Amino acid sequence: MRNLVLVNQKSWKVPTGNPGIFCIDAITRSIYHINSEEVYCFKIGDCGTDSLLAITWKDHDICTSNVIAADVITANDCICVVTGDGDVITVDKETQEVEVVGSVDAGIHAACWSPDQELLILVTNNAKVVVMTAIFDAIAEYSLNQDDFGENKFINVGWGKKETQFHGSEGKEAAKVVKRTVKAVHPLDDRRPRISWRGDGQLFVVSYVRQDTDSRCLRVFNREGILQYTSEDVDGLENVVSWKPSGSLIASSRRLSNKHEIIFFEKNGLKHGEFPLPFKSTEMLLKDVAWNQDSNILLVWLKPIEGTERWHSAKSVIQLWTVGNYHWYLKQELSFKEEVRYLSWDNENPLLLHLLTLNHLHHYTWVVTTNKSCGFGPLDLAHVAVIDGQKLLMTPFRQSGIPPPMSAYEITFTGQINAVMFAPPVVKVCEASPDNSQCVEDSGFLETLDPPGCNSNNLCVFHGSETLTFLTQAHADDILDDYGCGVRVTGAGGNGYSVQVKVHRVIAQHKIEWDPEQIMLDLEFSKFCSWVWAAKNTLLACYKTDDACSVVIMDLQGIGSEPAQVIVKAVLPTEVSIVSISPAPDGTVAVLQLECGSLLKLDLQTRMIEPLCVNGKDIRFPSVCEQVSLCPVKDGSQFMPLGLTCRNRLYWGYNQLLANCTSYHIHTDHLLVTTTNHILEVMPLMESYMSKRVAGGAEDCGVAGSRKVERGSRIVTAVPQDTRVVLQMPRGNLEVVNPRPLAIHTLKQLLNEHKYYQAMDIIRKQRVDLNLIYDHNPAEFLANITHFVQNVDNPHRIDLFIASLSEVDFTTTTYSFNYSNRQHHDNKTEASGGKIDMVCEALREAMISVDEEKFLLPILTSYVKMTSSQMDVALKKIQEIKDIKDKKFKVSAEEGLRHLLYIADVNELYDVALGTYDFDLVMMVAEKSQKDPKEYLPFLNELKQFEENYRKFKINVYLRRHQKALECLRDSDDHAEECLNLIVSEKLYKEALQIFPPSSEMNKAVCERYGIYLMAKQYYNEAGVMYTRADKLDDALNAYQKAGNWKMILIVGAQLNFNNEEMNVLCCTLVESLKNRNNYVDAAWVYEEYLKNEEEALDCLVKGSQWDDALRVAYKYHRLDLVDTNIKPGAEEQYRFCTAEIERLASIFTQYCSRLAVVRESKEKQHLDMLEGNCEGQLDCDLYSDTSTVTGMSYSRSHATGSRTGTSHTGKTFRSSKNKKKLERKKFSTKEGGAYEDLGLVSALYELLTTANGMTASVMALCTILVTFKMDREAICLQTSFSALLTLMDRKKAEIWPASVPLHNEEPEFGPQLTTEGVVNRIRGGGNGDVSFVAQRMRELDPHLRHPPPVNRLSNWSLYMLR
């Protein structure tokens, strides 16, 4: 649904002389004119044409009657000229040397170079095809008059022969094969052969006149000159031929008695479609057809036949055709009063046409664009206009989505349509809008004082040479003067069906006139290009001459009323040629794009042109853009230019926004973009987002929404203030999608306006989560919840809303892209998990107040949906309805119960009914369920026989509501044993202790059972407490003895009233137990306080290294003899032990540190050798972790039972639990030569440091007592050796645990963000902060072993007097 828009037209007057052949140098852009007399070269410059060289054939003794073909050979830097006399001539461009490189005696009719200029194809006058190389050596020759199909002749296996078919009433005569006779060529055919190459240069086709039938035929050859295919016989086939560069079709033409057609052939010669040309077969002579380089446009070169009506107005006609959905559209038609002599498409720009007439050289440049209405309001119908010759195919996508080649209706004009312009939208900030957003003034229909520019659905069509036709919306039956134009409804009704859309009708048609106050210039209005309707009463166009370019401003005066005029008010020249004109949505300015990429701003009020500046910077696109638009940003008062190049680069101002954009569309508040990755992106038109996107960081902010689309899809249009986006596939078919961001944006507007019914309709169609209705603005929703119920007014939809409620805030999760700038509400109730309950309660109250009878079902759902489900309340509500005899409610109890059964599980509903203790309610639910009466009736009858409290107990036990069951028997002792069994079986000890009074026998029984349970769990202290509460003191004493709680043992002993002898026996047993546990301090306390044995108490304190307490006891009980017999010998013995231990620790620590350095050096060297591929020895896979990086070097391992090869040094991909335990043990092994020796050494050193730190307090106390006993030398020796050990350990910490080792909570990063280079750097331990080999090995240890143990010793542990 795209049109060709002429954006650039340049003309230069050139000297052509006699008729001849033209060729263009693709590199220097020089033009060569070759005729029978000379070779003339000229180049187009800024100031016109410059003559470069002129070579006369006579000067080189060459005589030729006519020139057949001429090409610039880039590789040889020469011009190759083929003459009809049979000569092949080369002209050197530098030296101007002329040489005849070959000659054909029979003469040459046609010649053509291959696309790669490696082969030259000649067709001689005696109908032979000659294939020559680039050095003009003939490699193949074939006679066209041979009766041969070619190498790939079709194989007929005899199926479906005409002779074997049944012909019914036609009889046997119909089975006879009648040989068809093809008609001879038309007299207008020049009977000359034509050659055309396929784009890849592998095949070429020759069109010639067969000698036997005197009819045209196509023959397809390969590069070797071998015939491959011959076309089928076609009546009226003409001389033109052009092979589509993409290779799918060969275009030609045929002239029949009643029509003139362009027909297509496949490479196998079979006809493959056609389309008629829009004139009679006797009006035009078809000169040539030519495909552009991207195979999207077919050019048809026509010459009116002398004497016809068309011949008086034009000597040559050029038509441009495109195809979509198998329909051919006539997009452009150029008429020339001079005869066209040469034309060719540009090799680089597929939309640039070079055309040479008798005296002028023309360059035409088109762009492919979609002519569509650009309104922003709901009244804009999203019109799309498609040009097809004199017809304009119209489709309003807001009202109907009709795929091409059909349309809603078509408008026929009196001449070829050249340009289509839709009226601009009138945008301003609307203060009445709830969000102060942009609004659009669209009148919808034309009024007396309402100019056409006020309605974005109105359009203006430039057709013919200088005619402008204005159209507005009206009914097809309205009586209007259509000025010769016709409107016919096609795909949207008509022909007896009701018309579903409003159509465009002509309201005015005018010729362009000059303002009397302006100087009339000699401008050809037919050469205007880049038409735009910039403002309400202003049209803009561009006019270009040989050396100048101007902007033409036309004023619309009184269009739609009398008198009315289209007047040229100003012609503003520019220094550089204009490529495109883009108006601003507010109609105040227009932006002019120049050939150099610069942008100029044209003020439509002052008519001044100046550079376009945004934020103080001049805007300039890095390259020329085919499509330019002005995007509104911020509040709509500023606009940013947006440009799309032919190489899919999308520019936002002077910065590149995307590098793979294929199309874009400016929606109300979003920018829609399709990419070469077949993705539709929706970007919000916010300056903050665009700045991040340009900087490359918007992908992480989660603002843009995207969705996959079909390959090659492009945006046609999008319905304003709607969710529909129309995409067109490469073949031409349409697809309408509803991008989620647009749907959410529309929902936000509807929710802001409290249009809940429309919002819910979109939510259901687009499958948006219903939670968004509340999450969009919780406070606003709760404040208008009654309006919500009244506006929706549909119990089923409200029921669906309640059922879908969730605690998740969807504005922060699923739909965060549309709420990026939102300040999220901080609701304490919702934060605590009360969103569902709050909405259900508020909605239930609103429904009850509006109409409780109507909304009964959603009311029931609100009870069930509560976080703590109130299904019992819902059931009671249903029972209440059932008991009411006057049928107050519209919904019956059975319907309500069915509803509950639908939203809740029947078994759960049965249990809830049973939990109400109401057997009538239980029976009502059971009857509606599929339960078997044989199962539930005996159970219910049995329950009815029990006493009330016991019945509730049994029901709660059945429902596993054990706490409620216990509460039912709290005041009764009749079923104590059953209650205890329940407590024990379900382990309800804590609940039972809270339910039964502390003074009751049941509480004591529970405590006893709880004590037994805790003893089995080995919670002895807690078991002792429970036994004490149950008055089971013997059991409590046993529990405390197992726990080693000596204080509680003494307390329970006193509670049991033990006598002195029994207490002494208990204490003796207790102190032995404490000494066995090395708890000498507590044992000393018992000896001193209970057994009164100070000697044993002092002995325990010495063994526990409590020297101060030992001296205290000795002096307290005046036993100074114990100082010499116990304390002093004990200190000496402790001194010898500590000295030996310090020496042992120092020796082992030094040995392990030295060994660790050697092992690490060896393993790192082995690791580097492996990376460099120099490791020939056997490698241990266990040396590397399960997450080691693949190095890519092959290795092999041989065993007695077989061999194994691989490409990585990773370990096994899985490990059993037994292997994992074995691996953990190996990691802590210090065996020399082991795979994990370095890790075992680190673990051992960690233990040594921990042991040394733990000795600090005991060494300090020992040094103190040694000085007290005047053993200064020993104290100094002990403190010095221990201090040296600590210093050594502190110094070695940095070597054992390098600084590059990651913290314990840091893990290796893997995933898509880790590149191959990063992986290699991590292995090799390279710079830039990469992890070293030692750090990789340390990751194998447990996190707490990856760093030295924490230092918890006192900083002043050493004695100052001993330093």
TrEMBL record:
ELP1 N-terminal second beta-propeller domain boundaries: 386-716
Domain ELP1 alpha-solenoid: 740-943
Main location group: cytoplasm
Domain ELP1 TPR: 950-1112
Pathway: tRNA modification; 5-methoxycarbonylmethyl-2-thiouridine-tRNA biosynthesis
Molecular function as annotated in GO: tRNA binding
Gene Ontology cellular component annotations, sorted alphabetically: cytosol; elongator holoenzyme complex
Domain named ELP1 first N-terminal beta-propeller: residues: 1-348
Entry-linked Pfam families: A-sol_ELP1, Beta-prop_ELP1_1st, Beta-prop_ELP1_2nd, HB_ELP1, TPR_ELP1
Composition bias type Polar residues, residue spans: 1195-1214
Localization annotation: Cytoplasm; Nucleus
Any single GO BP term: tRNA wobble base 5-methoxycarbonylmethyl-2-thiouridinylation
UniProt keyword annotations, A-Z: Cytoplasm, Nucleus, tRNA processing
Span of domain ELP1 three-helical bundle: 1121-1296
Region entry Disordered, spans: 1195-1222
Family: Belongs to the ELP1/IKA1 family.
Annotated function: Component of the elongator complex which is required for multiple tRNA modifications, including mcm5U (5-methoxycarbonylmethyl uridine), mcm5s2U (5-methoxycarbonylmethyl-2-thiouridine), and ncm5U (5-carbamoylmethyl uridine). The elongator complex catalyzes formation of carboxymethyluridine in the wobble base at position 34 in tRNAs.
Protein name per the record: Elongator complex protein 1
Gene from which this protein is expressed: Elp1-L
